[in-house]
């Protein structure tokens, strides 16, 4: 049983190893600066934007489609928020809601063409990408729009005070313990075999340690960065959606076998639209955070970011043919990409080398994954 | 005395958590047609995949001798070179290529890297003619029926000169006439000196065409005998380890007066070509507790009928559908399921299963509401509900978390059945429900059908196996070219009558 489980998790395992290797290499090359609390906080912040987009992208890819528009959607939504706030003096909350609304509309647009008009997602979202890019530049009049209100900028720049960090960490641990207990209870109720109590306890202690070490480490600098907190909450919510809800199951079935899903009574069109709404909505959220972090919206914001999101998904083991994907793995994928960016900047590697290295890592990561899968057959 | 062409010695093959083969031994004589039979999941397909190099040398224990020499196949190409050709149970054709391209896939006739299409078509046509198969070479695989696909698969396997031809359940999807054709092909091959290994759950075929028969059970060889020493009952006893006195359980359910499904003058036109009528003025009804059999040849419109009523077939449709006394419009399968209908499709791979997902996920797919609260799934409840069916219809698996694609063909079919039954349908459509299922499991499924009928379910069963239609149905209707041409009650029906009407021989 444990052997089986290991086989199932082998790609997650490989991914973690490669993350450790990357970290070790940069740590050595940068004389340890890579692991300074300050840099770790920075790395965490860099991960968030791509990670949030990658969460949405995972749903799209799992459903058997692709969304090329997320980078431009992110830039466009960020510009919408900035224009409304800087030029039209909107408050932070309405500006954010408007930007998210733009994201959702964009998703409905793609979903409509893909689900109801049968346009391949690649084309529909390529169109969307150009449209949003144009809209972004036109709306912002090719200018940098700044500065944002302080309350807005906080979303991207603030740190959560140390003591609140500890409280959040503790809540997370308590929630986890409760869920482990409920899980055992439910298993007993259905007369299923439960794993030995020791295993559950060990697992709980392990995760508790990880949470507390992370909080402690980030607190050594200024605390948990706000965007990281937002990303973690989103990851949690959408992980739940993917694994534990009817919606998530429908999406996975849709990508696994469209016809079978239809014949099982799943509303395939509706679900397809939802998938694109999730993707565009999260891209807009990423755009808001980006604008907050830079304290400005720029005409080039989001350019090429769709590729980072796709890369994070692929490194995270999401199957390009649909039906397979996991959010924690995708987050690790985003972390790998961000760690590369961060590390290479730290050691002052020239930009062109950075592209080449990222390309190579992407290729090798996927290759290692396919190899391990065919091995375990 | 014939010499031995193939010997497999002490073959053992393990998958994570399952020992699929345990010291299996198989000896096949030159020029024989050798049957390999056993229950679902016994290991037949696995054994043949070992032989054909799908599972490379050294991923199994034991040895293979071909013509007395040890064979070490690392790929299927190696085995092809050694004269072993295989037709897999799960068809392996490229859906978007046409028939001719599929037949010569990977070995297209070419000169200097340029394909000579004329030669490809010429050779392909010659192969078809040799074997007496009629298919349109330029049609894409996805546009022809499963039966025809099966024939293409056979032609493809024969496009290389094979000494040993393995056929893994080739007849599961074929109609009576196509089966006859296949039998004829096998006889021709035999006359040419080709050795065939035939896997089949249809024991009458085995008795008819094979010379010897090997039975395996739970991954172990039970025995090999000359066919003359065997009969169907003996084979079943070897397969199951117990006797099966009856093929069809007695039906105890009473047919109630309540009409659960009534279809009135249903007409359907093709989605691509609006002038083409697929279903013509179909009317029938099924009562609670009744089993209605629909017989007919491939292409008679039986599957289209079920799919149209179920809201899956697109295209113009006229006529009335009344469920349990209420006239309904069914535009999507979702609607049909909500109205209490269930459908088990004939094409489990394409239309039925999400192969990469687990047994649980597949089984609960149509009843997610039942295993959730406010849209949130209860994983333990899912397993609990699935386990009920794993027990009642006997899905052979180490755990319900296993991916469906790792199950044997017959067990995949059972998962599909489980999904449909979990919705507790009032009206149940079964399209070839026992395709690829072993004799013992068939009996269990028949029993289950009778139980459902006794609980008041109305069942419509499409089947190409005439004994099954006759043995299970209270009433049989026969379809021909989109029309219902006749109807018989349980006492009147006979194989001859069905054949006559199904082939259009009695069109009045
Ligand atoms: N790739 C795989 N991974 C894990 N288990 C497998 C795999 N392939 C087959 N099995 C298991 O090996 C056993 C034998 O399967 P096999 O397909 O050989 O059965 P079969 O005799 O052909 O049955 P059927 O009549 O249903 O086709 C089954 O228990 C099946 O679940
Ligand atoms: Mg098989």
Automatic annotation (TrEMBL), chain A:
It is a multi-pass membrane protein. It is found in: Cell membrane. Keywords: Cell inner membrane, Cell membrane, Membrane, Sugar transport, Transmembrane, Transmembrane helix, Transport. GO terms for cellular component: plasma membrane. One of its GO terms (molecular function) is transmembrane transporter activity. The chain crosses the membrane at residues 12-36, 42-63, 94-114, 121-139, 159-182, 194-218, 224-242, 273-294, 309-340. InterPro entries: ABC_transp_permease. It holds the Pfam family BPD_transp_2. Its main location: membrane. Part of the binding-protein-dependent transport system for D-xylose. Probably responsible for the translocation of the substrate across the membrane. This is Xylose transport system permease protein XylH. It comes from Candidatus Thalassospirochaeta sargassi. The lineage of its organism: Bacteria, Pseudomonadati, Spirochaetota, Spirochaetia, Spirochaetales. The gene is gguB.
């Amino acid at each position: 049983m444990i052997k089986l489980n290991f086989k199932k998790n082998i790609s997650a395992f490989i991914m973690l190893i490669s993350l450790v290797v990357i970290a070790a290499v940069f740590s050595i090359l940068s004389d340890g600066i890579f692991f300074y609390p300050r840099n770790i906080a920075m790395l965490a912040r860099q991960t968030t934007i791509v990670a949030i987009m990658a969460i949405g992208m995972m749903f799209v890819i799992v459903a058997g489609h692709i969304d090329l528009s997320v980078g431009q959607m992110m830039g466009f939504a960020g510009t919408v928020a900035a224009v409304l706030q800087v030029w039209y003096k909107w408050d932070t909350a309405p500006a954010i809601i408007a930007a998210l609304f733009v994201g959702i509309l964009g998703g409905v647009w793609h979903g409509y063409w893909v689900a109801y008009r049968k346009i391949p997602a690649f084309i529909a979202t390529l169109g969307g990408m150009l449209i949003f890019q144009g809209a972004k530049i036109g709306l912002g009049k090719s200018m940098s729009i700044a500065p944002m209100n302080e309350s807005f900028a906080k979303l991207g720049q603030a740190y959560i005070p140390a003591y609140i960090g500890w409280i959040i960490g503790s809540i997370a641990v308590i929630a986890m313990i409760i869920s482990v207990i409920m899980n055992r209870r439910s298993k007993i109720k259905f007369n299923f075999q439960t794993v030995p109590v020791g295993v559950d306890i060990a697992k709980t202690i392990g995760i508790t340690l990880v949470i507390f070490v992370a909080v402690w480490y980030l607190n050594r600098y200024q605390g948990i960065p706000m965007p990281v907190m937002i990303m973690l909450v989103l990851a949690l919510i959408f992980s739940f959606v993917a694994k534990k809800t009817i919606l998530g199951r429908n999406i996975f079935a849709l990508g696994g076998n469209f016809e079978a899903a239809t014949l099982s009574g799943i509303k395939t069109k509706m679900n397809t639209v939802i998938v694109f709404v999730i993707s565009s909505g999260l891209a807009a959220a990423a755009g808001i955070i980006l604008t907050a972090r830079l304290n400005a919206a720029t005409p080039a914001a989001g350019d090429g970011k769709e590729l980072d999101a796709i890369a994070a998904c692929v490194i995270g083991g999401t199957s390009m043919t649909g039906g397979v994907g996991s959010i924690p793995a995708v987050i690790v994928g985003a972390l790998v990409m961000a760690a590369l960016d961060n590390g290479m900047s730290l050691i002052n590697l020239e930009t062109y080398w950075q592209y080449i290295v990222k390309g190579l890592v992407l290729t090798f990561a996927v290759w290692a994954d396919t190899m391990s899968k065919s091995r375990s057959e | 005395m014939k010499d031995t062409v193939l010997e497999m010695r002490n073959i053992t093959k393990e998958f994570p958590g399952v020992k699929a083969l345990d010291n299996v031994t198989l000896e096949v004589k030159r020029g024989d047609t050798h049957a390999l039979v056993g229950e679902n999941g016994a290991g037949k397909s696995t054994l043949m995949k070992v032989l054909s190099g799908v599972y490379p040398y050294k991923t199994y224990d034991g040895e293979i001798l071909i013509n007395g020499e040890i064979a070490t196949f690392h790929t299927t190409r190696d085995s092809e070179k050694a004269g072993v050709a295989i037709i897999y149970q799960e068809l392996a054709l490229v859906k978007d290529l046409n028939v001719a391209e599929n037949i010569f896939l990977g070995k297209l006739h070419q000169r200097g890297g340029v394909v000579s299409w004329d030669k490809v078509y010429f050779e392909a046509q010659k192969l078809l003619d040799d074997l007496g198969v009629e298919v349109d070479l330029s049609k894409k695989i996805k546009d022809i029926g499963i039966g025809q696909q099966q024939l293409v698969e056979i032609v493809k396997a024969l496009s290389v000169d094979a000494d040993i031809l393995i056929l893994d359940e080739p007849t599961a999807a074929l109609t009576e006439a196509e089966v006859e054709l296949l039998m004829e092909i096998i006889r021709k091959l035999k006359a040419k000196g080709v050795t065939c290994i035939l896997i089949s759950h249809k024991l009458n075929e085995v008795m008819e065409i094979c010379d010897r028969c090997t039975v395996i059970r739970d991954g172990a060889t039970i025995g090999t005998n000359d066919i003359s020493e065997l009969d169907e009952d003996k084979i079943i006893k070897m397969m199951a380890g117990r006797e099966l006195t009856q093929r069809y359980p007695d039906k105890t359910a009473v047919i109630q007066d309540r009409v659960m499904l009534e279809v009135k003058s249903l007409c359907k036109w093709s989605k691509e070509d609006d002038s083409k009528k697929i279903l013509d003025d179909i009317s029938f009804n099924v009562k609670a507790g009744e089993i209605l059999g629909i017989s007919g040849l491939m292409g008679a419109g039986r599957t289209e009928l079920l799919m149209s009523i179920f809201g899956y077939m697109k295209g113009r449709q006229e006529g009335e559908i009344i469920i349990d006394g209420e006239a309904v419009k069914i535009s999507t399968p979702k609607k049909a399921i909500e109205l209490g209908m269930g459908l088990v499709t004939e094409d489990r791979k394409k239309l039925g299963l999400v192969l990469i997902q687990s047994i649980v996920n597949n089984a609960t797919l149509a009843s997610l509401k039942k295993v959730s609260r406010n849209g949130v799934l209860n994983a333990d409840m899912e397993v609990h509900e699935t386990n009920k069916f794993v027990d009642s219809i006997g899905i052979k698996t180490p755990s319900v978390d296993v991916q469906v694609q790792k199950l044997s063909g017959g067990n995949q079919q059972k998962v599909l059945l489980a999904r449909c039954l979990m919705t507790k349908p009032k009206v149940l459509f079964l399209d070839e429900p026992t395709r690829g299922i072993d004799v013992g499991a068939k009996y269990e499924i028949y029993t289950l059908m009778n139980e459902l009928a006794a609980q008041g379910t109305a069942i419509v069963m499409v089947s190409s196996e005439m004994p099954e239609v006759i043995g299970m149905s209270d009433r049989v209707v026969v379809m021909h070219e989109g029309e219902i041409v006749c109807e018989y009650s349980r006492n009147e029906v006979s194989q001859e009558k069905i054949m006559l009407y199904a082939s259009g021989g009695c069109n009045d």
